[in-house]
Amino acid sequence: MKISGWFFGCGAILALVACLILILSVSGAALFSPGALSALRAQNTIIAGVASHADFESRCELCHTPFQGPDATRCTECHRDVLDQIASTRGAHGQLRDVQSCAMCHPDHKGANARLTRIAFSEIPHNQFGFSLARHERDYDNAPLTCRACHTFAPTRDAETRILRAACVSCHARADARFIAEHRAAMGEQCLACHDGTDRLRGFDHNQVFALDGKHATVACAKCHLANRFRGTPRECVQCHADPAIHRGQFSNACAACHTSAGWRPARLIRHSFPLDHGGKPAACQVCHPVNYGANSCYTCHAHEPNAIARTHLAVNIRDLQPCTKCHPTGKKIE
Fold first, then answer.
1. 146 located within any domain
2. What kind and span of H or E run contains 65?
3. 308 is a domain residue
4. pTM above 0.85, yes or no
5. pLDDT tens digit sequence for 220-249
6. What is the pLDDT of residues 94-140, one digit of tens each?
7. Are 72 and 151 found together in one domain?
8. Does 19 fall in a domain?
């Protein structure tokens, strides 16, 4: 009885395995497939002997690694042009950081009529291409932008490959044709060489031209770049700031000698050639600059009389008396 029961159990298992084999042989991969593969053909191009993914729908191993899912290395065994882009870091695939996730941009099993190259606008990792969509989700009329608003698609010798050509001018010229014409004449035609889709220039270090620190850090671009003009932008203080009434016409244009980008006030002497404490303690500005800040005098502090000083110096054959700091840069008497 025990032996016959054992044989009966083995027979049942074998029968079950046979049924599974029969089911798999009949249904094949369709049993596990989440949906039909795309049957669309790219301009009748034949790749590795097939015209579309639907032609090998029963051969899951061509795209999938068991228990792991789609395998990018298997994709590139057929799509050699993509492999060449990755190897040469050129083209769309050569610029992607996560290039091994083919299914992220080209999902299949969406039906026979699904386009493998048509994906949601929001899913395209534009930042990986060096261009942000943060300011390009809608056009000037507030209508949603589509891919074709910025790109034209032209087939190459390999019909599966598409070239993307930016169409910045056609869109922005509708908003301000005059500015775009002048901007192209001044800056050239390569928009993407400077612009990355945000309000900043691609790879441009403003500090190399003009440091945006202190109060300048919060100034709107249009305050300095009037009418969106960038060449010839003022760099000197006096080109943007009027000479304050407190010292109007008294100083040169060396504003940085007293002022910093942190603010006009409080003003401080950053570069003062004469020691401010040469009398023992710092003196008020008016002591040495009684008339204006652009001129100085030693007579308001020292008990000398100009004629007496002239006689003393002439006695030792010194005739060039002004300014005093020429011979007394530290305020001390020459021994």
1. yes
2. strand 64-65
3. yes
4. no
5. 877 888 776 777 788 888 888 888 877 777
6. 777 667 778 777 888 888 888 777 655 556 667 766 777 878 888 88
7. no
8. no
How far is 292 from 250, CA to CA, in rounded Å? 6
Contact, 48 vs 62, CB < 8 A?
no
Helix H, strand E, coil C: the string for 107-174 is CCCCCCCCCCCCCCHHHCCHHHHCCCCCCCCECCCCCECCHHHHEEEEECCCCCCEEEEECHHHHHHH
Residue 57 lies inside a defined structural domain of this protein:
yes
Residues 114 and 137 in one domain: no
Token reading at 275 = 């020691």
Number of domains in the chain: 4
Tell me which residue range forms the domain holding 301: 273-335
Rounded CA-CA distance 243/111 in Å is: 72
Backbone conformation region of residue 225, classed left if phi is above 0, alpha if psi is from -120 to 50, else beta: beta
